[in-house]
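Whiteboard transcription, Tuesday session. T.W. wrote the structure tokens on the left side:
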């Protein structure tokens, strides 16, 4: 982010002291009106009295670039959850602000609409050094009343992940692959690349990575879009033969035909489509079964699949999210039951892929999910720590970055404790002509000791958790 150097008045407020809110017990709360305000815009940012504020006052953040900074003292280095309490009665579409730690932007946070004198909270996950850390909330859209900041040490779910699939009848090879994934989780990040099929070579992206780094990704992303079942299955079998890992998504319309455009444009009569015995339900099942038949072919070829249907559902831009959270959960469970119990697909690892906002209320249940994921397309190589922790708190499941643009820097992943199980760079220009994913950077990533590539995988399909010999190679 560019530094903004402007001649402006900076209003200095007294040094910050932590305030412990009675409702939060011993959890430290920093009153933002006691922080340091920077006012550089046309409209004045200052402190004002506001009913409902925890200390009776708030910072009236106005213009883009205005900010308030507090000094947060951490007892130890680690990952912390910052809860920002605010009032935002201006814009029903919400406002976005930047959060900076020690001078670096770590997240852009969304402050949804509230009524006047009503307050809400938004969580931000950050890495804090032991001792004093400068934490700033800076206006992107501004026009928000900032009340206080609560700081809590984040707890990790890594120790609670069990290598037990949701389907107790999963094949031995699928169970083996999942054991490997759970064993890797928190120790390494698996490299992944989404394919395209229209760039002159089916291996276009993989050749780009190989040329840049001398390595291939461990995980290949495929897509059943356009009814490309035969082509995807052929490439999936070939990748499995190389010792690689396969993940498949499915861009399609609500009739399970077409591709990305149809996924965006179509919708369902949700009540009828999810009611057994209706023509709409029968049509839904018939379309769904096309994917089942394709996956059955891979089952018969002993190809375990990380199955990622209905991705970015909580973003509501694809038809499978347009019906809202409750309908989505019913849809997910219908597919899970149909594929697992009717088609007896024992080769699937079910990957639930949120969008980057990770909206509440969409989780279908532990018995239907094996891996939880999130995605976003940013313009930096930061570790996406906040998104990682928020994803990890959804369930005691491994957490993946199921799509990305720029690849997170492996050194930042290690330093921040952002333990994505894998990354999956999107296709074509995201890997071939990206200003961040340059050949030099791809080489650096793929040759990192923290990143697992195709040549570094053990036999993940005959894997015992106690077998650590591959780690010594």
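and on the right, the sequence the group agreed on:
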């Amino acid at each position: 982010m560019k530094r903004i150097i402007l001649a402006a008045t900076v209003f200095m407020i007294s040094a910050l002291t932590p305030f412990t809110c009675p409702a939060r017990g011993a959890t430290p709360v920093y009153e933002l009106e006691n922080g340091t305000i920077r006012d550089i815009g046309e409209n004045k940012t200052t402190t004002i009295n506001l009913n409902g504020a925890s200390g009776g006052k708030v910072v009236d953040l106005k213009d883009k670039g205005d900010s308030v900074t507090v000094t947060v003292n951490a007892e130890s280095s680690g990952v912390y959850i910052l809860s920002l309490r605010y009032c935002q009665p201006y814009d029903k579409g919400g406002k976005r602000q930047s959060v900076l730690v020690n001078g670096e932007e770590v997240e852009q946070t969304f402050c949804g609409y509230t009524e006047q004198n009503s307050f809400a909270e938004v969580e931000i996950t950050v890495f804090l050094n032991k001792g004093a850390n400068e934490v700033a909330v800076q206006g992107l859209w501004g026009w928000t009343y900032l009340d206080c900041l609560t700081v809590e040490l984040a707890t990790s779910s890594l120790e609670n992940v069990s290598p037990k699939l949701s389907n107790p009848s999963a094949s031995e090879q699928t169970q083996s692959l999942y054991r490997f994934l759970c064993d890797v989780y928190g120790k390494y990040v698996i490299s992944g690349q989404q394919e395209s099929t229209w760039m002159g070579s089916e291996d276009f992206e993989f050749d780009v990575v190989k040329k840049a780094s001398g390595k291939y990704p461990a995980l290949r992303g495929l897509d059943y879009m356009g009814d490309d079942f035969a082509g995807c299955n052929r490439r999936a079998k070939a990748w499995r033969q190389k010792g690689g890992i396969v993940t498949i998504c499915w861009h399609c319309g609500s009739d399970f035909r077409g591709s990305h455009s149809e996924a965006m444009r179509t919708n369902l009569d949700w009540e009828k489509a999810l009611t057994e015995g209706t023509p709409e339900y029968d049509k839904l099942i018939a379309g769904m079964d096309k994917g089942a038949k394709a996956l059955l072919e891979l089952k018969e070829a002993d190809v375990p699949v990380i199955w990622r249907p209905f991705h970015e559902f909580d973003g509501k831009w694809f038809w499978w999210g347009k019906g809202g959270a409750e309908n989505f959960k019913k849809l997910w469970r219908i597919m899970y039951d149909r594929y697992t119990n009717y088609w007896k697909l024992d080769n699937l690892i079910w990957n639930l892929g949120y969008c980057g906002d990770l909206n509440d209320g969409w989780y279908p249940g532990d018995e239907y999910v094996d891996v939880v994921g999130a995605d976003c397309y940013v313009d930096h190589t930061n570790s996406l720590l906040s998104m990682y922790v928020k994803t990890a708190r959804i369930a005691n499941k491994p957490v993946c970055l199921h799509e990305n643009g720029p690849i997170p820097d492996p050194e930042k992943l290690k330093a921040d404790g952002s333990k994505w199980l894998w990354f999956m760079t999107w296709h074509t220009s995201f890997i071939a002509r990206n200003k961040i994913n340059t050949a030099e950077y791809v080489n650096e990533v793929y040759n990192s000791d923290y990143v697992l590539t195709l040549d570094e995988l053990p036999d993940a399909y005959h894997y015992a958790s106690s077998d650590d010999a591959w780690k010594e190679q």
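Someone added at the bottom: The chain has two domains: 18-153, 158-472.
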